[in-house]
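Homework-ish question, so no full write-ups if that breaks the rules, but can someone show me the predicted structure for this set?
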Amino acid sequence: GDSVTQMEGPVTLSEEAFLTINCTYTATGYPSLFWYVQYPGEGLQLLLKATKADDKGSNKGFEATYRKETTSFHLEKGSVQVSDSAVYFCALSSNDYKLSFGAGTTVTVRA
Amino acid sequence: DTAVSQTPKYLVTQMGNDKSIKCEQNLGHDTMYWYKQDSKKFLKIMFSYNNKELIINETVPNRFSPKSPDKAHLNLHINSLELGDSAVYFCASSLWAAGRNTEAFFGQGTRLTVV
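A: Not a homework solution, just the prediction itself:
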């Protein structure tokens, strides 16, 4: 079945550092890929998405590119802020009625 | 105007009780879900409904019974609550289009604590 593997955390960074969270997937067909963010005490919010190979999703300074050849969708941000501290989830949607999530990566940004 | 709303936000109850969590979406989506998030933040699909029909039931104990009276609502009833049921439960919705789901929108979660 479909699955998502993402980099284990926790990740601790200083403000203005570069952030990368690795995500790889296994799926039949051509899935859509997503990154969600969960701030403390809140639900999940869509951060960005890509629906086909070579698409780049971007939002709030975060970017991820759908790489079919490496089955990856790594999340990057060039300069993180304290407000980016959250749990980040990579997810995919294939041809079944669910979104499959990675285990989540907790990111803490220190001032 | 909340897109996916679930109530209550917090639920503390004793073992053996029966409780319900309600979920409503006003996005016009046709697919709704229940996810369980454990203390390590791992998200596990419990149920998926499309147009009020149960599509996915991921080996959830039959103490959990979802009900979808219409496409905009998906409620979760839990019988004989156990300590291990303590978790955060998320409702979500999406649209089924072109053979796959669009992005899902999530509710704020219900933190269930069984004592």
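Now go work out the reasoning yourself. Hint: Residues 61 and 97 of chain B are 30 Å apart (CA to CA).
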